[in-house]
Write a structure and sequence with these properties.
Keywords: Disulfide bond, Signal. This protein is of the alpha+beta class. The protein has helices at 2-19, 34-44, 54-66, 155-165, 175-184, 232-235, 280-296, and strands at residues 24-32, 47-48, 73-79, 85-86, 111-116, 122-126, 131-136, 146-153, 168-169, 190-195, 199-201, 226-229, 244-247, 253-259, 268-271, 316-320, 332-337. The longest helix is centred in the first third of the chain and has 18 residues, at 2-19. The two termini are 18 Å apart.
Length: 338
């Protein structure tokens, strides 16, 4: 029972640490491009900073104030512009394509889906606009396996429709399939099944609720695929207009790294055993067993256990227990701290 209680106390402490924010931030004022900043953070800390909520934002501000910093700084945001793949099977787009010249260009900063136009070329546009679409049906032989619909839908709505009625949105992967698709195509902007990921955090954290500055991201420079904290966040003591802007990854800026602060907690362990608890083999077996139990009960990754040694080099010491007078044998209890 005592051992079980110990496990529960340790796990509770870990969960409390997680809920209060796992990462801390360190501002590097030496200016680097985004890629070099990422490499530096990964070598010396953990990664470029992920800023997901008000607690994170507060820590970023405090770190900037510590160094009297009032300029722009890279964080871990980047636009995954090379992740084009097919809706049907998530297979990446290969070397064959029908992009129009200078496409894809992400001209509005949020162009993550593909349409085909009357010139039979592909363009990237926002997935939220509404257009006709072409479905693919694997149960039908060529060329009828491509089915054209004039209904105006967003890319996601078109995908849902095609998956319910057919197989999925159409993804031509070679010139023969493209010719078959073009035979069903009539006019106007029309969805096909290629799409890509958008903005991500360098450490792969959830990026669904990024607090962009007003009207950002907009890819104003044409290749603005990395994110930074805007100056007004620091110079004006914070802003309700948002935190992040998009910029060219080649620009030189200061940057925020994130790291996991090391926390040490000492726990007292009582063990009832007939074994010599100061035997290194016995200690190693017990520690391994405890580590496994803690992992089963959601111990956070990168948390380790180790014995705390006394000044004489021992880990456990014996503590005599009071027994009833009629008990002939004296048992001992081993106690340690860890």
């Amino acid at each position: 029972m005592e051992m079980r209680l110990l496990y529960m106390l340790l796990v509770t402490g870990v969960l409390q640490t997680l809920s209060s924010g796992l990462y801390e931030y360190h501002l590097i004022t030496d200016q680097k491009n985004w890629t070099d900043a990422q490499a530096y953070c990964r070598e010396h800390y953990v990664d470029l900073a992920t800023v997901e909520n008000d607690l994170d934002f507060g820590r970023i501000q405090r770190e900037a104030q510590r160094l009297s910093f009032t300029s722009e700084a890279w964080v871990g945001l980047y636009n995954d512009i090379n992740s084009w793949r097919c809706s049907r099977d998530e297979v990446p787009l290969g070397s064959w394509s029908k992009w129009q010249t200078d496409q894809p260009n992400n001209v509005f900063g949020k162009d993550q889906c593909v349409i085909i136009f009357q010139d039979k070329r592909w363009y990237d546009i926002s997935c939220s606009s509404k257009h006709s679409f072409i479905c693919y049906d694997e149960t039908i032989s060529s060329p009828e396996k491509f089915v054209y619909y004039t209904d105006q839908k967003t890319w996601m709505e078109a995908q849902d429709f095609c998956r319910q009625r057919h197989t999925d949105l159409a993804c031509p992967t070679n010139s023969n399939e493209e010719l078959l698709l073009e035979k069903t195509f009539i006019y106007g902007w029309t969805w096909i099944g290629f799409f890509r990921d958008g903005w991500k955090w360098s450490d792969k954290s959830n990026s669904s609720d990024v607090r962009w500055f007003t009207d950002q991201p907009n890819n104003a420079g044409g290749k603005d695929n990395c994110g930074y904290v805007v100056k007004s966040v620091f110079s004006n003591g914070g802003t309700s207009a948002g935190l992040f802007d998009d910029g060219s990854c080649s620009n030189q800026r200061a940057f925020f790294c994130q790291y996991v602060p090391k926390n040490t907690q000492v726990m007292r362990l009582v063990v009832h055993s007939s074994q010599d608890m100061n035997d290194p083999t016995v200690q190693a077996d017990l520690l391994e067993n405890m580590q496994q139990k803690l992992m089963e009960q959601w111990m956070v990754e990168n948390t380790t256990l180790q014995w705390k040694k006394h000044s004489d080099g021992s880990v456990f010491y014996k503590q005599k227990e009071k027994r009833k007078k009629n008990e002939k044998e004296k048992n001992t209890t081993s106690v340690c701290e860890m």
